[in-house]
Amino acid sequence: MSILSFHGAGGAAKGNCARFLGTPLKSTQEKMQRRQKAEGEVAFWQKKKEGLKSMECGSLEEIARKLEMFHTYEDEIAAAKASYNREQMFHILDEAMEQGEKNAEAAEKSKPKTPEERKEELVEEALGIQEEKGVLSEVLDEVMEEAVKAAEKVSENAKELAEEAALKRRLMELEDAYMRYANAQVCPPRPAEKTYRIRGTKEPFYTLNIIDGVLSVQEVMTVARKYNASITEYLNAVLLYALLQKQNADFHLRLRPVRIAMPVNLRRFFPSKTLRNFITMVYPSIDPRLGEYQFEEIVEHIHHYMRYYINDKFLRGDITTNAATQRNPLIRVVPLFIKDLVVRTFYTRVQDKNSSAGLTNMGALHVPPDMKPFIERFDIYMGQPFSSRTNCAIISFEDVLTINFASSIVEADVERYFFRRLVRDGIHVKIESNRDMEE
Q1: What is the DSSP string of 165-199?
Q2: What was the pLDDT predicted at 215?
């Protein structure tokens, strides 16, 4: 890592000051003081950064703390360099003005034999038309030369700072943000109760059935406001309502809770520039065993659920629960291929059964103005589910809101109940699909 490349100006001018005036300029003295101060700051933080090499890390948490300290020292060094370089640009002008004033005073003191000769010598010296250049002209030339050199060094230092910033950005993009924020003092339990699971006729493995609903954002927003809910809360409630209708229509010995698995983007609550996965799941649910729910009650329940669970406190606890397994010393020594097998088996046989369907809302997508005339809408599809469940993905562009269902079963009852509820609320829906629909 490069140390500070100081961008001085007026070095030659300083020599002229000593040669012609005998004492250094005040601005030059101030420059030396600033230089010493900046060198001291850089050396201090550089020593701190070098000390990190001998710092041993025995856990991922210590690695994250060491990386954070490295970033802090880098920021302090860059700030010291930038501050010094900004002051140097102003120093060039101050030094030139001070040198000019001192030269004018020196010229005033030199008295020629006659007033006419004195006037003539001053004019020649100031304009530099003698065989040798005048003092002021020579000093100004040297100051300008040093200014050009200073500008070149500023450019070089800016390139160095850009490279350091790029390295810092790459380190931040590779950060494991889960480990950084997994510092809650409790690990909240996961939902463990079995939920209602859709039963249907499975398609061949390579088949993915798609049903798209195209709606108006304004229409959906108007209806959602009627229920005092956001668009996400309203559409979650509609999907839970459709799942309840599907369970009631199916043959069942007993009712089970219906639950939706919904991802939450943790970057909204915990600042991070990582490009790695940084989400967690929340599970809005309705338990029909408590009684029959009207649609208005479902919307109200989801509205309060979202506000109660989606905040930095609960999400930090959920992150801590996720990280607890990763921090377990016994699990860390297990080979990766065994971990992959166990995780895959756990998801298909346990985790996938904790929810009746999946829903994700990507929100409004924005593009550059030049692209807008060529885009009608966006579609987004979740991957093929392991079970016979259906997954729902939502995205909007301008006034077009698209709801995309993807499943691997023949039946489309949940999708039918879902869109019927929207139509009942007065929302116009255009349906598209890659399958043959009887209705």
Answers
A1: HHHHHHHHHT--HHHHH---S--PPPP-S------
A2: 96
